[in-house]
User: Fold Organic hydroperoxide resistance protein from Kitasatospora phosalacinea.
Amino acid sequence: MSLYTAVATATGRDGRAVSSDGKLDVELALQEELGGTGVGTNPEQLFAAGYAACFATSMQLVAQQKEIDVSGMSVTAEVGLVPNGQGGYQLEVSLRTKLPDSLPREVGRTLIEATHRVCPYSNATRGNIPVELLAE
Assistant:
């Protein structure tokens, strides 16, 4: 049984995406780099925002369980759209986690790896797309 189900409808890369509760309502546009106008957001930006937020929240949970202070931490997700060699495309992700300077590097690395095992986005993408974990 699902704890929560998000529902959204989109009309394509040049259109709109709207959540069933109306809290998300965004204009979509093909990126300029791909020949579009770029006047709206795109699926890769939405995925990056969702993954970054989910990973940050998961890290806060893991850090709390391990009694590690991660105040001031942030996560930046870079989502690339790359050709898959078969006429289609795939995603690739780099997660850049900015940890507090006071946190020892080895502790931070262990925390990032533990978070990667907990985060729902990480679990959904594991084995499907490359995800690079970076501590900064």
Summary: The chain has two domains: 1-41, 43-135. The domain at 43-135 is CATH 3.30.300.20 (GMP Synthetase; Chain A, domain 3). The chain has a mean pLDDT of 96. The helical segments are 43-65, 105-118, 120-125.
